[in-house]
Design brief:
Layout (H helix, E strand, L loop, with lengths): L2 H4 L4 H46 L6 H41 L6 H10 L4 H17 L1
Helix pairs in contact: 2-3, 3-4, 3-5, 4-5
Keywords: Membrane, Transmembrane, Transmembrane helix
InterPro entries: Uncharacterised_YwnF_TM (IPR020205)
Pfam family, one: DUF5392
Length: 141
C-alpha cells in the first residue's frame, strides 16, 4: 500500500517503512473493508427508511421493509464503529513500532525523538523518518 511513497526514500528508510507496513497492512485491509461496507449501508438504509416512511407512513405491509433497512443500518453502524477501532489500532501499532525502533537505537538523541513522537502523533512518521536520517548520518557521516 505504501509502495509508491516508499520509492522516494533511500533504501535504509524504505526498509524500516516496509517493516512498518508489513506490520499494519492486515489491520489496514480490515479497516478499509469495514469502511467500504459500513458507510454505504448506513446511508442507503437511512435514505430508504425516509423514502418509505415519509410518503406511505407506517403500515403492516411496510413493516418488513422498515425492519430490513433498520437491520442493515445497524449492521452498517457496527461496521463503521469497527472501522474506527481498526483505525485506532493502526495508529497505535504504528506509534508503538516507531517508539520501539527508536528505543532500540544507540543514538544519543533517541530520547528527544521518543518524546517528540509521544507528544505529536500526527507527525509521527515524519519524525521517524527524520530520526532515521539523523541516525544514518551519525553512524556514517
Amino acid at each position: 500500500m505504501m509502495d509508491k511513497k516508499l520509492e522516494q526514500y533511500p533504501p535504509y528508510i524504505q526498509q524500516e517503512l516496509s517493516k512498518l507496513n508489513d506490520k499494519i497492512e492486515p489491520i489496514t485491509k480490515q479497516f478499509l473493508k469495514y469502511r467500504l461496507w459500513g458507510t454505504p449501508l448506513v446511508v442507503v438504509s437511512v435514505l430508504n427508511l425516509f423514502l418509505i416512511i415519509l410518503p406511505f407512513g407506517v403500515s403492516a405491509e411496510i413493516i418488513p421493509a422498515i425492519l430490513l433497512f433498520a437491520v442493515l443500518g445497524a449492521i452498517g453502524m457496527a461496521l463503521s464503529k469497527e472501522a474506527k477501532l481498526k483505525r485506532t489500532e493502526v495508529v497505535t501499532q504504528t506509534r508503538d513500532f516507531m517508539l520501539k525502533r527508536i528505543a532500540e537505537s544507540d543514538s544519543d538523541y533517541k530520547d528527544e525523538y521518543l518524546r517528540r513522537i509521544r507528544n505529536n502523533a500526527l507527525q509521527g512518521v515524519d519524525l521517524f523518518i527524520e530520526f532515521l536520517q539523523k541516525e544514518r548520518r551519525g553512524n556514517w557521516g
